[in-house]
Amino acid sequence: MTESSKAQANSNEAASTLEAVYQSLTSEDDGRVCKDIPDSACRHQPKNVVTHVISLTSTKVADGLIDPKLILSWLMSALGASSFMIGLLVPIREAGALLPQLFTAGALRQMPQRKWAWAAGSFVQGACAAGMALSALFLEAKTAGWVILILLAILAVARSVCSVSYKDVLGKTVSKSMRGRTTGLAASIAAGAVIAYALLLSSGWLERQSLVIGGLLVAGALWIFASVIFASLAEEKGATEGGGNPLTVARENFSLLAKDKQLIRFISVRGLLIATALAPPFMVTLGGESTRGDSLEQSGMGNLLSGLGPLVLASALASLLSSYVWGHLSDRSSRRVLIYSGLFAALALALTAIFHWQDLLQQSIILPALLFILMIAYHGVRLGRSTHLVDMADADNRAAYTALSNTIIGLLLLAGAVFSVIAEYFGLRAVMVVMTAMCLLSSWIALGLNEVQKEVQSDESD
């Protein structure tokens, strides 16, 4: 067989593999897969769907391998970074992914093909993850901690670029009937990979710190791989008009607060529930305090290390087991989901403080169990808040409500650095107590939210 014949055969085999994957996703669709995208995009949809699945799976696995709430907090704790520095991880990551969207959305709107923005953002995230691994390997504890924080800030901004551009690219390259299955398949595969990583961390087969640093390098490679793959999407050029001045738009959005008391109440609830996102690094550090002695070799650092796998596993399982239940309940009452999430989180945080006070966090099962409860609450918050916002708003103000809510929460997350100050001067247990109070207060305020799903059902019946 000639070289050209072999190349053609390989090309045909790759095409048939893509078609097989695509057919498995569309087997129950009755052919209604291309009614809301142009015919030119429809021709490329089998390849585009597989490209989205591969790219999204890679980035979601990478997200799990560097998770600031657990992986990076544990790594910085193991490197000897202070509680103040560890407490900055989640505020930097979360606020950095939200606030820049206010300024990047208009600029990205001017790009006819936004796949290049997503690809660039993914590449930068990969470079940052690799930089974190090298910092942990070659820099001293305090210096490594600051470099990791700076790289995380850059990674968060790059992530915001990907977030802004992705929805538009997905809408242009994949039909509406396929979008949920495409992103859902990627999320399911990634969840399985993260659970496998957690089991590997728990196994003791490899030295854990090396495994964590290796995970960062793999995350970097996955983001860069996703960048290259995503750039091959067949994306049609889109509209470039419509990007307003970000400060003017933000000022107009803030005026909505004076018109809608329910919006103020919702943002208050969501703002108090940022405790569910900010708490895990402090819990990890508390667990480390419970197992540390005077020196690294005699400290029980082995216990700290062996605890990472169960923590990551608890987080992954909480996502896998609770998301469907919360989603189902949110369709009936997102208000109740927010109330229950606040109560679950308050229980987990209060028990963390109590068990630390009683020197019981070093028990192998306790901290993972508490984190499991907290992460169930965290996923309830994520699903409840998004469902409530969509259902309380209408087509005319939904985008403005979303932008305003994200901007305020981004600012609050940035202000969440104050918990690092509390940890530094009053101790980690004080942080748990304050966050417990925040979650209880959120549930009390959520009692006054409207049952927006009943309103939606009433409108539909009319």
Corresponding CATH architecture of the largest domain: Up-down Bundle
Helix content: over 70%
Low-confidence stretches: 292-306
Mean pLDDT: 78
Secondary-structure element series: HHHHHHHHHHHHHHHHHHHH
Question: How many distinct folded domains?
Answer: 2
Distance between the termini: 69 Å
What fraction of residues sit in β-strands? under 5%
Number of helices: 20
CATH topology of the largest domain: Growth Hormone, Chain: A
Q: How would you name the oligomeric state of the polypeptide chains in this document?
A: single chain
Give the beta-strand count. Answer: 0
> What is the CATH class designation of the largest domain?
Mainly Alpha
Give a quick account of the main beta sheet: strands, pairing sense, barrel closure: none
| Radius of gyration over C-alpha positions, nearest whole angstrom | 23 Å
**Class computed from helices, strands and strand pairing:** mainly alpha
**The CATH homologous superfamily of the largest domain:** MFS general substrate transporter like domains
Characterization of this structure:
It contains 20 helices and no strands. It folds into two domains: 44-239, Up-down Bundle (Growth Hormone, Chain: A), CATH 1.20.1250; 245-457, Growth Hormone, Chain: A. The model is unreliable at 292-306 (pLDDT under 50). It has helices at 3-25, 39-43, 45-66, 68-79, 83-87, 89-98, 101-109, 115-138, 141-173, 176-203, 208-230, 246-254, 261-272, 275-291, 301-357, 366-392, 398-415, 418-426, 428-446, 452-461. It is globular, with a radius of gyration of 23 Å. It is mainly α and 462 residues long. Helix 6 (89-98) runs antiparallel to helix 17 (398-415). The longest helix has 57 residues, at 301-357.
